[in-house]
Amino acid sequence: NQGDPAKVGEITGQMQYGSAPGYIPNPNVKWEESSQTNLGIDTRFLQSRMTFSFDYFKKKTIDMLMKQPIPSYVGIGAPIANVGDMENWGLEFELGWKQSVGEFNYAVSANASYLKNKLINLGNETGEQIYENAGASGVGSYVKGMNGDVFPYFYGYKTDGLFQNQTEVDAYVNADGEKYQSAALPGDVRFVDLNGDGVISDADKTKIGKGMPDWTYGLTLSADWKGVDLNLFFQGTIGNDVFDFSQRGDIPAMNRPAWILDRWHGEGTSSHIPRMTSANPNGNWRSSDLYIKDGSYMRLKSAQLGYTLPVDLTG
User: Are 286 and 146 in the same domain?
Assistant: First the structure.
């Protein structure tokens, strides 16, 4: 040891490599347990040309495997234990129709499912947990779990547009006349003092979105005629959000989406895309609802066109 009691073996000025466990082992870990209730009905109409099914389900999972928070000074990853409880319930529908008209046959099938998710017990004393995420620098943690809410959800600041001029910056003060954001400049983001304590801090962060969709749906179309067949499958979701890192405009050496042209570059030019600057004293790109985008979509997932050779040609 040469001078620094916090280091061991630094004789040559080179750090020595070794191995260590990634987190505290837990020999008492076991399988998660779940119980599920299903109620459903399947029916057919019009000589089985029309079909309909409906299902209700409720699932409760206990002893979920989750990381247990420990103080950072422990110097090792958090242990995994059977501590969480969660509940899911939902509805599933499916409606189909098939028919033949001469040599033309076709079928249509649509399905949809509705899902609600709730965390019953996170397994710690506070009933909430902020998860560290490998995101872009300056964003901070943006995922959280809390008892009684959807698990997990996006977590960050609420915003109230952009400062359009210095007068707006100077006027954004608390009850004591102190600026909420002393480092802000025109074109910067205005963050909301959600808890009303006169300071913009982590205490103002809240739920800003969720990644789990309320609805998931699909549509299948198929038809065939004289050996030619066509199959199309559409898929989509409704009610889910996306935490879109591409919204950042301050990361160097990267291509920019076209929306960057609509950034703030003078009073009145934008109310939601901050000014472009390499410096970020206001923390414009910290986790906030500026990143949240509607994740609902519908897409053509697969398309298949085929032809079946006649039997007399295939032998």
Answer: yes
Summarised one tens digit per residue, pLDDT across range 118-167 is 999 988 888 898 887 665 667 888 999 999 999 999 999 999 999 999 99
Closest to 213 (Cα-Cα) out of 130, 113, 138: 113
Burial category of 105 from C-beta neighbours within 10 Å (exposed 0-12, middle 13-18, buried 19 and up): middle
24 and 132 in a single domain? The answer is no
Percent of the chain with pLDDT over 70: 91
Q: How far apart are CA 67 and CA 102, in angstroms?
A: 62
**Cα torsion angle, 122, 126, 132, 133, sign:** positive
- The pTM of this model reads 0.81
Domain count, the chain: 2
Contact, 30 vs 64, CB < 8 A?
A: no
128 contacts 119 by C-beta, under 8 angstroms:
no
Domain holding 208, by residue range, is 126-314
Task: Flag whether 132 is in a domain.
Answer: yes
Structure-token pair, residue 43: 């029916």
Is there a single domain that holds both residue 169 and residue 280?
A: yes
| Other CB atoms within 10 A of residue 293 CB | 14
Residue 201 covered by a domain? yes
